[in-house]
Amino acid sequence: MKITKYEPQYEEGWLRCRVLAYLHTSMYEDVKTSKPMFDGRPTIELLAIEDDMVVGILDMVLDTEEIQTSFLAKGLGAFLSVIAVHPDYQGRGIGQQLYDKALEELKQTPIEFIELYTRGDESANNFYRKLGFELLLETYDVFGVEHRLGKDVVIKGIQDKKLLVETEDGQPCTHTLDRLGCRRQPKAETRVL
Ligand SMILES: CC(C)(COP(=O)(O)OP(=O)(O)OC[C@H]1O[C@@H](n2cnc3c(N)ncnc32)[C@H](O)[C@@H]1OP(=O)(O)O)[C@@H](O)C(=O)NCCC(=O)NCCS
User: Fold this and answer.
1) Could you tell me the superkingdom of the organism this chain comes from (predicted)?
2) In degrees rounded to 5, what are phi and psi of residue 44?
3) ∠ Cα 106 110 112 (to 5°)
């Protein structure tokens, strides 16, 4: 296994590694179909490669004097946008090696802190704690329709294998139930470490 800088020829491998790593986590729905390129901002983009296959990925975006994105700390930060290891290769120190390599590269920069967002996945959060991250803030993701467009709905029956849904004031509801159902999902926990 080797850790190298990201090369565009590995984009498909990057995407597959990410989607598989997230598959059984609370981030499962966060699927990328092309690799984020961060608008020319300074980055650290690393790959773990074994037998020419991408088995681990890490992306960090670095603040500059002009662009500082953290709202939790003052100064120049790096945002750990993704660190993920292919499920068949987890628990072998690859995540740690990716992170160590990024830390080494950060030594050449004026970056003062690293920030990341995570959810309630204990294995990932244990990993982040092991790396030295501390929980600074807990917040909630609320899934919903656009502000003021949400209305309560009444299920009237079934027609053509679809639920007949009306808004509470008797108007036909053209949204899919799936979308309306989003309003009623439990709040998902988001953590900022
Ligand atoms: C989190 C992740 C990047 C860790 O990579 P990894 O290569 O499996 O981790 P490592 O083998 O380098 O482990 C380093 C340390 O992290 C901790 N750790 C890693 N996996 C863990 C797990 N499943 N449970 C508890 N602790 C874990 C351990 O302390 C471990 O050190 P140790 O082996 O000395 O005990 C990887 O498991 C992953 O991609 N998971 C899916 C992504 C994810 O859950 N994302 C959530 C959204 S942020």
Assistant:
1) Bacteria
2) -120, 120
3) 80
Asked whether 126 lines ligand 1 (CB < 6 A), one says: yes
Mapped onto helix, strand or coil, the DSSP state of residue 111 is coil
Q: Is the CB of 133 under 6 A from ligand 1?
A: no
Report the pLDDT value the prediction gives residue 174, as an integer from 0 to 100. 59
- Distance of alpha carbon 142 from alpha carbon 144, whole angstroms: 6
The residue contributing the CA closest to ligand 1 atom 39 is 84
pLDDT score of 45: 98
**pLDDT tens digits, 24-54:** 998 898 899 999 999 899 999 999 999 999 9
47 close to 54: Cβ distance less than 8 angstroms: yes
Question: Considering only CA atoms, which residue is closest to atom 44 of ligand 1?
Answer: 124
- What pLDDT was estimated at residue 9? 97
Which residues have a Cβ under 8 Å from the Cβ of 155 and sit 6 or more positions away?
Answer: 163, 164, 165
Query: What are the chain's domains?
Result: 2-134 (3.40.630.30), 153-186 (no CATH)
Q: Terminal CA-to-CA distance of the chain, rounded, Å?
A: 29
Strands 117-118 vs 113-115: parallel, antiparallel or unpaired: unpaired
